[in-house]
Amino acid sequence: MTFPFRGDLFAVAAAVVLATIAGLSIGGLPLAAYAMLSTAMLGGMYVLWSRAKRSQRHAAAGVDKRLKGIEQQLSSMQAEQAKQTKRLTVLPRQLDALEPRLEAIAAAVEGLRAPDGDVDRLHQRLASIGDSVERLPNQTKNAVRTWTRTVYAELEDLEALYRDINPDQALPPMRGWAAGADLSRFLYREVADNGRRNIVECGSGSTTVILAYALRANGSGRVTSLEHQEEFVEATQRMLADRGLSEWAQVVHAPLTDVKLGEEGFLWYEPGRIPDGPIDMCFVDGPPRTVGDAARYPAVPLMRDRLASDAVIILDDAHRSDERAIGERWQAELPDFTAQRLRHDYGTFVLRRNA
């Protein structure tokens, strides 16, 4: 897992920009406004939650800093709307209807300023935004509804994950290149509920921390994370050390090397760094797709002989065509495994060995 090291503020800003671009391409200015402002509000909410365990002074400072970013985004959106109002004479009614809704959302986001705000209040504010969707055109309405359901699901998984772990400090960021809250909670529950002990992770980052928390809760086991970039090895090791999890996880520097499987060649982690079996859980989230086609395929062929009798294989980013093809190929090669596709934000493909 690639490590998101540039901070919460950049992650929120990037999410706002991406949501705005997506909204413009799908439903024009109305959807862009909703996508942008809802993402900004969710970002503020996440910062508020992640700082909840810290001192009141630090929490207030962190929330205020990110609220300034949200306010800047709102100001920019309002200025852009004023320009578009002059140009888009064909949409005067829609723009007029959008104005009060923008003001209502801005007021809701402004309410996040209090550092002692709770998640229930944020749920209610997000619900009020959803109510206004009913006044949008059907195509835009459907897109916003889908997006809002995703936001709710991520929020619920994040809340549940904090309840499960009850950490003494904030969990690592779970947006951008990192795994989302839905996948992170699935990984935690898979380990905690099924007693996974010998875990191999292809790629390191926030999920390494989540897996280590689960092993610590069980009282036994270790996750070995293969990582080809040294800076990410060091960054993940720091995250583990800061949370007292170093004894439950090992981040191994495994440079990418040429691997031959039959007549096919791949660039994959140094196979000699794979730990001994039996491996009862394999989480595949690397190498990155920039390495080449089917970059993650070698994981199963190289570990197949070391998989435990109850092994589970989990592949991230299964919505992408390359990962879908990899999952189908694994499924064909492992007739004693049952496949499952989870509707996570980025898509998750699961293979479980039959009892």
UniProtKB/TrEMBL annotation:
From the UniProt record, give one GO term of the biological process aspect: methylation
InterPro entries, per this entry?
A: SAM-dependent_MTases_sf
> Per the record's keyword annotation, is Mitochondrion included, yes or no?
no
| Swiss-Prot/TrEMBL keywords | Coiled coil, Membrane, Methyltransferase, Transferase, Transmembrane, Transmembrane helix
Residues spanning the membrane: 7-26
Q: Recorded GO terms, molecular function?
A: methyltransferase activity
Q: Which residues form a coiled coil?
A: 60-87
Q: What is its EC number?
A: 2.1.1.-
Q: What is this protein called?
A: Class I SAM-dependent methyltransferase
Species per Swiss-Prot/TrEMBL record: Glycomyces luteolus
What is this organism's lineage? Bacteria, Bacillati, Actinomycetota, Actinomycetes, Glycomycetales
